[in-house]
Amino acid sequence: MLKKTIPILITIIYLTGFLLSFPYIFNNLFGAEKFESIRNIFEYGIMFSSFLVFNALLFKNKYTSAIAVLLCLFLSINFLISVSCYFIYHSGFNVGMAISILESNVNEAMSMSYMFFLPGILCIIFMGMLIYSVNSLKNTVKFDFKYIIIALLWLIMPFAFHLKHKYVSNKGGGKMIKSVYYHLSDFNTALKIQEDINLIKKNVPVFNIKQVQPGIENVIFIIGESERKQNMSLYGYSKKTTPYTDQEAGNMMIYDKAVSPAGITNLSVPLILSSIHPDEFRYHYDKLSYNIINLANQAGYNSFWISTQQSAKGITAIASMAKNKKWVNGYDEVIIPELKNVIQNKDNKFIVFHIMGSHPNPCNRLPETWKSGDLDCYDSSIKYTDYVMRDIFSTLKNTNSVVIYASDHGLKIQGDKLLHVDSKESTQVPFFVWYGDKVPAAYRTTGRDPNLIQTTYIYPLIMKYMGLEAPQHYKNEENKYLNLDMKSIDYEKLTE
């Protein structure tokens, strides 16, 4: 009885994982396109059943059984991705998440591993049930024509879907080619995007630069990480999380309604640092070569990229164009000695600091002495960033320096979790400009701007501080947002 029940149960579990990753298919079961959803579920059910038969045939031989175990492991990882997205982010998987996985590093993965405890257990259970099902079927299936055809369906059907997509029908212009490994198409797309990123390094444009006045000596851009302005006392939060920045408010231009152009670092930072439009991001990655680092180099600035974040290919492609590059280990305060060293030179400098900030898990971003008091780890990470900002302000006080600070994106609170999702809440970010005492009056604008502004405005703002003629119009005026499906939408269409 168990041998018959487990294969049926594992099929149901597999399809559940599929629906978790493509919730619109489940939702359409109760709408006008219910037959389309039923057809999708039926097709994936056939492919999975064929997959079981295929591996059962492999299990008949001790040598080919190793291949079967490997195929089952890959499918279990596919399932792990589905349940992880559901339990951690309450959403399906997408290309943006695939890029994040491909660009992650060991340290980053380890810091977030605690979030995958339950999904990991479910993955192990799924793998065990999958192997059990395949093993129990090996005595039932035979090497005859009928079973061989059934066993090959999971390989034939994706090819048939590809031909249909290419030559017959491409409903909605979608690109998902069905496969038992239903996340494979997202990773294929992500890999192609990464190949395009390499074009950035090969294509250095010539900018038409018009100098209108002498630039500020030290133009510094600090890229914060996962910092919610809602948790900063600078923006009215009840807890005193930014005491040092609060004290400097009279010497700053503070943007009260700043929003990020995307919900994850690997999309938002390239959009901020380059002139590429969100509409072009998916198909014209080579345009990322039109970035602020290349512009600074041609404007006569000595460029620096100093980061406490491990490299990510998209961002590193831009960072690699800096004349001076350094990735440093340690908590974010390690950038202070680097800053003090860099500003010793009296040439014009453009410096980017990419800090860890409040990156999940925020408890890992803090020295031990900061993990106490009445603040939780997230609020403490914001207060620690403020402590780092204090030292930056102190170091630059008597210099001709401007500091632009903005977080790459915010986070959405859902229960006790802070999530990277597409929502207005998770786009609200801190964005302000601070001035050293020797900055010319022509560049000083202080106060608070109450208007909605996208942080892509930083690109023409940096041009202004370099003494360059800024463009009359720029993409921040359109407030386009690049969602995790890599589609450009109007910001107002985001959910709260």
List the keywords.
496 residues; 16 helices; 12 strands; 44% helix; elongated
Map the helices and strands.
Elements: H1 2-21, H2 23-27, H3 34-58, H4 65-89, H5 95-103, H6 106-111, H7 117-137, H8 145-168, H9 184-202, E1 218-224, H10 243-247, E2 252-259, H11 265-273, H12 292-298, E3 302-307, H13 313-319, E4 324-327, H14 335-342, E5 349-354, H15 377-396, E6 401-407, E7 412-414, E8 417-419, E9 431-435, E10 447-454, H16 458-465, E11 480-482, E12 488-490
Parallel strand pairs: 1-5, 1-6, 2-10, 3-4, 3-5
Antiparallel strand pairs: 2-9, 6-9, 7-8, 11-12
Helix pairs in contact: 1-3, 1-4, 1-7, 3-4, 3-7, 3-8, 4-7, 5-9, 9-13, 11-13
Describe this structure in words.
The chain has 496 residues and is an alpha/beta fold. It contains 16 helices and twelve strands. It has helices at residues 2-21, 23-27, 34-58, 65-89, 95-103, 106-111, 117-137, 145-168, 184-202, 243-247, 265-273, 292-298, 313-319, 335-342, 377-396, 458-465; strands spanning 218-224, 252-259, 302-307, 324-327, 349-354, 401-407, 412-414, 417-419, 431-435, 447-454, 480-482, 488-490. The strands form three sheets. The protein has an eight-stranded mixed sheet with strand order 4-3-5-1-6-9-2-10, with helices on both faces. It has a two-stranded antiparallel ribbon with strand order 7-8. The chain has a two-stranded antiparallel ribbon with strand order 11-12. β3, α13 (313-319) and β4 form a beta-alpha-beta unit. The model is unreliable at 170-176 (pLDDT under 50).
